[in-house]
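Q: Convert this sequence to structure tokens.
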Amino acid sequence: MAPLTGIRVVDFTQNLPGPYATMLLRSMGAEVVKVEPPRGDPARIFPRLFDILNAGKDSVVADLRQEDAREAVRALVSEADVVVEGFRPGVMDRFELGPQAMHEACPQVIYCSISGYGQDGPYRDHPGHDLNFQALTGVCHMLRDARDRPLGGALPFGDFSAAMTAVTSILAALIERGRTGRGQVIDVAIVDALLSWTYVWTEGLTPGDATLADAAEPTADALRRAGEALPGGLGSIVGKLADSLTAGRGRATLERVGETLRKTKRVKSLERLRLHTLPHYTVYRTSDDRYLSIGVVDEDKFWRAACEVLELAGAGGLPLWGRFLAAAPLRSRIAAKISTEPLATWLTRFRDAGVPVAPVLTVDEAVEDLQLRTRQPTAGPIRGPWSVGAAIEADPPKLGEHTSRWL
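A:
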């Protein structure tokens, strides 16, 4: 039995984020009743997209501008476990179907709203789409073209991240309701979901208040350890250098150097591109005009193994900071080497050496990849991206196909 068997979801959402969220709930066994306006979900003009997102759901048509339709929908909601809506803030309140009205009528219902900017704040009433939300939350700043202009992601990161946020929030609320018997109001903002991602990634790797002087103590410790392995006189010099780094004057010097470095193009690139500034965390073209991704982060063992495959004599001993500083010449040498052999050759060599690599595939190629096809077959029933639940065997609904059953 699927984990959400017996859970009924009334879905007022359209297009992508809400329908994807309820698709995931449906894949875990929930019964989803999709409430559509007389003209239908706008996504119906993209039949394949609509079919993927709405397989196995029931469709009812209700013109919420009409009082009798609203009464029928209230009766439907009164027997629901979850309500998901994706209108701009205030729209459901105007239909007298907002969270407060619904909770007064049926306190057990879990009411989830998905919107661009959330239910409060100065932007709550602004229209917006995924590109706007990516721009506001730093995603576009981090994605740049060859001329350093900000770009939006090819994937609608905001819609998908908000959908996953909605699903996890609903599942948590169902657990809480099992303890208390009462539902909750969930306010999912696409910008909140995106900012959570960008903040974790940027602040986690480079805290906003970090300075070069913060590296003084760990650098001094590393120098002291290195000095212990050196002959007496040389080791003493290295030890004194380590001590000078942590002294007041040494820290002040590092602060000044750090302020200068912050203004350089190289450091600004690091602040934006993060791991992609490294010569071993990027994509290279092969001789057959395909592309190979190499995904070495800070693992020295992977870097050494990659250098052996690439025949980069001496480079395997470079520490991470050295690879960062020498990124441009290293990237040039790696690119030249990889351009001499086809993709299949490099995949074999790197995988045999235990280096994390993968080919750059089109979506059509990806769905035929052995690993991906094993876990997520695309020919046949639709399923969510997790192992719980079951594939959705049913067809997508015709517009209003189930109206007489539910209203």
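The mean pLDDT is 85.
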